[in-house]
Amino acid sequence: MKEFKNKVMFITGAGHGFGKVIAEEGARRGMKLALVDIDEPALTATAKAIEATGAQVLAIPADVTKEELVTKAIDQAMAKYGAIDLLVNDAGIALAGRMWELPTRDWEWILHANVLSQVYSMRKVIPIMLKQETRGTILNVSSIAGLVDTPGMPAYHASKFASVGMTEATAYDLQRANSGIEMHVMCPGFVQTDLYHTEQHRPAQYSDPSDPYYQSEAFKKGQQVAKYVITTGMPIDTIAATVFKALEDNEFYILTHPQFNPLILDRVNRIVNHKAPDVHVMDGLM
Ligand SMILES: NC(=O)c1ccc[n+]([C@@H]2O[C@H](COP(=O)([O-])OP(=O)(O)OC[C@H]3O[C@@H](n4cnc5c(N)ncnc54)[C@H](O)[C@@H]3O)[C@@H](O)[C@H]2O)c1
User: Fold this and answer.
1) Which positions make up the signal peptide (predicted)?
2) Within 13 Å, how many C-alpha atoms sit on residue 254's CB side?
């Protein structure tokens, strides 16, 4: 994607973190925005701040774990702007917790929030992009956790590997269909955002405070680790510039932390050599 002026960005997760700074950068480049988030006060704050710069903004409070709400949000954006040029699937959550401890409802929540939300919007937006005259671009936000594994968060890895896999597979199908639609998957390492406040975005349908897991040491430890890795991550200031440069250069994988490249290579080597994961590989890195 080379031209941004007057193009329409539909972005989820615009209330905080990556979504917010990508939306702000889009506005700086003259884009019209449709912003979605479950956190209505944060969404309104982002929308008002961007509107004050003179950009056109539509703020749509919605829970992206629900297909009907994603569909409705896209309909609202189409009714206002008549096109979607850049779809950014950024809304997401992070949950720590070992396979035998994390409740099934939390697995369902993270797979809906991080994977199915991207499915819902792509299933709706790709047919729109195929019909419209301007070339479409789709950016799915995954994570370095979609390329390499670490201990303690199998559900997060499952969701992020799924996001990478379905983005790659969809890119093949869009190439075969000669669609002209450009696909990107963003795979950052830890960055200072609000991601450790995931519990504040837990939809009611995935909530059961009576489950003793949420009082357990395992749960508390997961929260502490999430807070530590996010608050000690890379500052967010360069992220939007990195994303837009990658869109301009049509880079498929958007990577922000080259220090993790050896882990990616190690994983590929282990696969082709039939070797089991080795937890010591990431000593000193995580
Ligand atoms: N921060 C990091 O270190 C990091 C690293 C790799 C990948 N990521 C990914 O980046 C994406 C954005 O996360 P972030 O770090 O900016 O965190 P963040 O918490 O600052 O932003 C995520 C946004 O998604 C919204 N959201 C959560 N659940 C939602 C739902 N059901 N419906 C609608 N909106 C919802 C939140 O309200 C929030 O505004 C996520 O997919 C995350 O997994 C983050």
Assistant:
1) none
2) 25
> Given the CA of residue 144, which atom of ligand 1 is nearest to it?
6
- Asked if residue 197 is part of any domain, the answer here is yes
* Ligand 1 pocket residues where CB is under 6 Å: 12-13, 15-19, 37-39, 42, 63-65, 90-94, 113-114, 141, 143, 188, 190-191, 193-195, 197, 201, 203, 230, 233
CA distances from 193 to 2, 103, 239 (A): 27, 25, 11
Indicate whether 87 belongs to any domain. yes
Cα 177 to ligand 1 centre (Å): 31
Query: Cα of 45 to ligand 1 centre, how many Å?
Result: 16
Encoded tokens for 152: 């303690």
* Within a domain: 267: no
Q: Which of 106, 143, 141 lies closest to 233 in space, CA to CA?
A: 143
Q: What is the pLDDT along the chain (286 residues), one digit of tens a residue?
A: 999 999 999 999 999 999 999 999 999 999 999 999 999 999 999 999 999 999 999 999 999 999 999 999 999 999 999 999 999 999 999 999 999 999 999 999 999 999 999 999 999 999 999 999 888 999 999 999 999 999 999 999 999 999 999 999 999 999 999 999 999 999 999 999 999 999 999 999 999 999 999 999 999 999 999 999 999 999 999 999 999 999 999 999 999 999 999 999 999 999 999 999 988 877 766 6
CATH number at 23 reads: 3.40.50.720
Which residue out of 156, 196, 206, 214 is catalytically annotated? Answer: 156
Structural Rg of the chain based on CA atoms: 19
- d(CA 7, CA 31) in angstroms, rounded, equals 5
